[in-house]
Amino acid sequence: MEDDHPDPVWPLDGADAVRTELLAAYDAPTRGYHDRRHLLAVLTRLDRLSAAGVTFDDVPVRLAAWFHDAVYDGERDAEERSATWAEIALPTLVDDATVAEVARLVRLTETHSPEPDDLNGSALCDADLGILAETEAEYDTYAADVREDYRHLSDAAFRSGRIAKLEELVERDELFHTGPAREAWTDAARTNLRRELADLTALDAGSAAPR
């Protein structure tokens, strides 16, 4: 990779073959948003949350970050297949409890709805959704890259699905689950989500108008 896309830190000693396979998946030319940059960003946000006082089990959470988008092809069961990959790849590298926790956390990223006492899930979900709180320019790049991930869909089909997802996020009482993320990221995230939703809704209405 180029210098501006450094190698993400691997949380295990050794197991280089698994790491290489995962990086190859994230580096696939079909990836839009969910590529190595995203993996690195999630790991960096975990560092930021930890520095802000958020506690979580380091190895399973960071392994879950590595596996959470290991499979990403625009299909609905990508998280399940990513979790299954972890369940196959990890048993010879870590204990059974860690394997189970990694798989659970990967599956949780389908909904980003951890229970209030789920410290590991809260940290991972916040790190994954932290992109929502980036600057307007960075958010717009993210939104364009997400569209690239779903290039197989028509514009109308993509807008319909994306609008539904944005509406679900906007209507949540809490977007983030750790104190530092709620305090630092909520306002910016809601602003970005509402702006994209308004833009897509306007496009959708325009495309449906009689000509």
Report the sheet with the most strands, covering strand number, pairing sense and barrel closure: none
Q: Distance between termini?
A: 48 Å
Radius of gyration: 17 Å
Mean pLDDT: 93
The named CATH superfamily: Hypothetical protein af1432
Amount of beta strand: under 5%
Shape annotation: globular
Number of strands: 0
Helix content: 55-70%
SSE order: HHHHHHHHH
Task: Classify the secondary structure makeup into a structural class.
Answer: mainly alpha
Keywords:
211 residues; globular; Hypothetical protein af1432; mainly alpha
Describe what this molecule looks like in 3D.
With 211 residues, the chain is mainly alpha-helical. It has one domain: Hypothetical protein af1432. The protein is 63% helix and 0% strand. The chain has nine helices and no strands.
Write the layout of secondary structure elements.
Blueprint: H1 16-26, H2 36-51, H3 58-67, H4 78-89, H5 96-108, H6 119-129, H7 136-149, H8 155-170, H9 179-208
Short structural summary:
This protein is an all-alpha fold. 63% of the residues lie in helices and 0% in strands. The protein is globular.
